[in-house]
Design brief:
Strand content: 15-25%
Shape: elongated
Order of helices and strands: HEHEHEHEEHEHEHEHEEHHH
Helix content: 40-55%
Radius of gyration: 21 Å
Strand order of the largest sheet: 2-1-3-10-4
Bound molecules: D-malate
Distance between the termini: 54 Å
Length: 324
């Protein structure tokens, strides 16, 4: 008798989950952005989230949970109920660099998530305050090498994209500027424009409007080709620092155990957003790079995460940086 009851209960559970997946979503969905509002990850989340809401028929509500280079928000997301109502925007830092820097990290980027798909590539641009005493990358490098810790470099916390790419920049030019942490590069950009911090290596979608507005200086983009959004900004190769190439990405994840039917619905909504002309234009105008067909799939994103953890771990270990 007990066996029958248990079997029925299990069946009921499966049926309930199946039904939930069929009717999903029936209420708003929270998207955790693990950095301060207004920064690159927030910008990408709001652009694709807006169109995904229309497809899903329920609002995607962004919740900014900043701290510890993005790992605080992603930890909360990874530990949330896998019912499709909590998803998160992770990136090259939270799902690539963080394991090398946080020995006690409470999630494994390669195991604890249901990848949904990449939302966009966000190349790194080397930028500085308007009155920074250099007008090209060579002069910036010479200035940082000559002045070391007297020069301040902003970043969004250990393990963030701006921290990992900034650490890689410092080791590439063999200099040690003072690293100044913020809760995101949104607030860091405000201080760069105010001239209270000297320079940073940040994602293009955050800095492009201020570069186009002449409010900050841009020295180079760390990709093989120039960005159509910033045609006057040379590549690091053109500017004499060929070895410095960094192409971060932002992507949507759900917690592990999220039903495959719900993962499929979320991925469908993301694909529709990335195929929408207005959404594409908003990303491209900010210098964003549209994901490839493979990067837009859960399987492709899983492979990317595994390769990024493998890539960043030796780079950051060699730099001798840890958060703990
Ligand atoms: C942000 O949104 O502030 C960034 O993604 C931070 C970073 O990782 O540099």
């Amino acid at each position: 008798m007990k066996k029958v009851t248990l079997a029925l209960a299990a069946l009921a559970g499966v049926v309930a989950t199946g039904t939930q997946a069929q009717t999903y979503p029936t209420r708003p969905i929270t998207m955790i952005v693990p950095f301060a509002a207004g920064g690159p990850t927030d910008v990408i989340a709001r652009i694709v989230g807006e169109h995904m809401s229309r497809t899903l028929g329920q609002q995607i509500v962004v919740e900014n949970v900043a701290g510890a280079g993005g790992t605080t928000g992603i930890t909360r997301g990874a530990q949330s109920t896998p019912d499709g109502y909590t998803i998160m925007m992770g990136h090259m830092g939270t799902h690539g660099a963080a394991p090398a820097l946080y020995p006690k990290l409470k999630y494994d980027p390669t195991k604890d998530f249901a990848p949904i798909g990449m939302a966009g590539g966000t190349p790194i641009v080397i930028v500085a305050k308007k009155d920074f005493p250099a007008n090209d990358l060579k002069a910036l490098v010479n200035h940082v090498q000559a002045n070391g810790e007297k020069v301040n470099m902003a970043h969004a916390g250990v393990g963030s994209v701006s921290h990992a790419s900034g650490t890689f920049f410092s080791s590439t030019i063999k200099a040690k500027p003072t690293m100044v942490a913020y809760r995101g590069t949104g607030p860091a950009l405000n201080d760069l424009m105010a001239g209270t911090v000297d320079f940073m290596t940040d994602q293009i979608v955050n800095v492009a409007p201020q570069i186009q507005g002449g409010n900050i200086k841009a020295f180079a983009i760390a990709t093989p080709e120039r960005s159509p959004a910033l045609p006057d900004v040379p590549t690091t190769k053109e500017a004499g620092l060929e070895g410095y190439q960094v192409s971060p990405w932002n992507a949507i994840f759900a917690p592990k155990g999220t039903p495959p039917e719900i993962v499929k619905k979320l991925n469908d909504a993301l694909l529709k957003a990335l195929d929408d002309d207005n959404t594409k234009k908003r990303l491209l105008d900010l210098g964003g790079v549209l994901p490839t067909a493979s990067e837009r799939t859960p399987e492709g994103l899983q492979k990317l995460v595994e390769s990024e953890v493998a890539r960043w771990t030796p780079v950051l270990k060699a730099a001798g940086v840890t958060a703990e």
